[in-house]
Amino acid sequence: MGFNTKLIHSREFEDQFGSATVPIYQTSTFKFKNAQHGADCFSGASDGYIYTRIANPTIRALEKNIADLENGYDGIATSSGMSAITSVYMALLGTGSHIISTASVYGPARGVLEKDFSRFGVEADFVNTADIKAIQSAIKKNSKVLYVETPANPTMDITDIKTCSEIAKEHNLILVVDNTFATPYLQKPLELGADVVLHSITKFINGHADIVGGIVITKEKILYDKIRHMMVYMGCNMDPHQAYLVLRGVKTLSLRVERN
Ligand SMILES: Cc1ncc(COP(=O)(O)O)c(C=O)c1O
Asked: Which of 78, 79, 80, 82 to mutate to test the pocket of ligand 1 (most atoms within 8 A of CB)?
């Protein structure tokens, strides 16, 4: 399937009635099939359809749709772009670890590291990530994550994702890209070597200014499992009604981006 076909079809959605669009499963809780099903949902070994904070069919349809657009393994939808960012920080950083980030990154993505994650012993440096030497000289023994926002909001500063991925591989860093401004229509960070891509879905992906939301997509299962666990345990989940509106909005992504 080409990009425009994926926008409207994505992976097949099947329900018992053969619905053409994804229905809104506006439910907090699902019937357990049996005790084992409940246990498997908590461990991640099953579909998770026991409780909407863990998983919900409308939200899963959106997660798979955007993951397909980014050519990623799978997606993790969140209540906002900021909860996508904090789920990633929480999953990938810990006391004594260090993150290097774009200096002109979206303000709260910087502020939460400086004011809040610092209280838990996470170190952060903010550099001009367009300058490869600046990234290289910021790398320390405890560096774990290279986080770039490109184009950055609102400066439109551009970072070369492919070069960052080479540096990240050389130094064993996880490369995270905020792709909110470009959208997967214009830029696919995972194909350029990033490990994790995230969005404020609030912006172009939804495109109708009627919801706030976020999503994280990973290249591999191992990071997907870590970040999904964090999203579920911190309760950063999206709501089914939000997911339905985004599934509707995203269908016109390429038309809207072209038209802009
Ligand atoms: C590039 C970028 N990333 C993240 C965010 C945060 O997203 P949200 O407002 O959906 O929490 C924004 C919001 O403006 C943004 O522009």
From this structure: 82
Q: Which ligand 1 atom is at minimum distance from the Cα of 85?
A: 4
Token digits of residue 2: 């080409």
- Element housing 199 (H / E): strand 196-200
| Residue pLDDT, tens place only, 171-213 | 999 999 999 999 999 999 999 999 999 999 999 999 999 999 9
Give the pairing type, strands 98-102 and 123-127: parallel
Strands 74-78 and 123-127: unpaired
What 3-state DSSP class applies to 171?
coil
DSSP, collapsed to helix, strand or coil, labels residue 28 as coil
Nearest CA to ligand 1 atom 9: 81
Q: Taking the CA of residue 202 as centre, how many other CA atoms within 13 Å lie in the half-sphere pointing to its CB? A: 11
Topology given in CATH for the domain delimited by 53-259: Aspartate Aminotransferase; domain 2 (3.40.640)
Specify the 3-state DSSP secondary structure of 144: strand
User: pTM of whole model > 0.85?
Assistant: yes
Residue 117, token pair as written in the block: 């994650």
**The residue type at 154:** P
β-sheet bridge partners, residue 96: none
The amino acid occupying position 96 is G
